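FAQ

Q: What does a record look like?
A: Structure on top, sequence underneath. For example:
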């Protein structure tokens, strides 16, 4: 069973941090100091979510306003859970959060190896490849239609 929740407690925020540390810092080698920033709070500037698979915290992402766009960030799924479609659940829930904020234009910095995944969800590559924390990325964009 998959459950997706916009977080509202420090305990849930810690689950988000644990997932991100395992994927980005330990697995991909992103410096710890680069992974966590001023948006990693429950102050309303950013909405974080956590996805549980069979009761276990398994995936996360966040969205915030960035110069007229909803910016999806820190999307990741723990390695043992990558075959269950949780990434799609994360992106879908972040898009719903964007709609609820009235944001219709979305962008993200997608790792190049994940570009096909995002393209299947309606995102288009909108930049040349660039490096971020030693990992190649693209800026990817999507315009949301009306709520379903």
């Amino acid at each position: 069973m998959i459950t997706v929740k916009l977080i509202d407690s420090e305990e849930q925020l810690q689950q988000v941090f644990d997932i991100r540390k395992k994927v980005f810092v330990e697995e991909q080698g992103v410096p710890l100091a680069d992974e966590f920033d001023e948006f990693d709070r429950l102050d309303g500037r950013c909405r974080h979510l956590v996805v549980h698979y069979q009761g276990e915290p398994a995936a996360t992402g966040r969205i915030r306003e960035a110069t007229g766009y909803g910016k999806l960030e820190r999307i990741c799924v723990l390695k043992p859970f990558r075959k269950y479609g949780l990434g799609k659940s994360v992106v879908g829930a972040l898009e719903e959060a964007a709609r609820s904020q009235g944001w219709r234009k979305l962008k993200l910095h997608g790792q190049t190896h994940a570009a096909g995944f995002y393209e299947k969800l309606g995102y288009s590559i909108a930049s040349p490849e660039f490096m971020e924390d030693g990992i190649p990325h693209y800026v990817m964009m999507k315009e949301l239609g009306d709520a379903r």
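Q: Is there anything notable about this one?
A: The longest helix spans residues 10-27.
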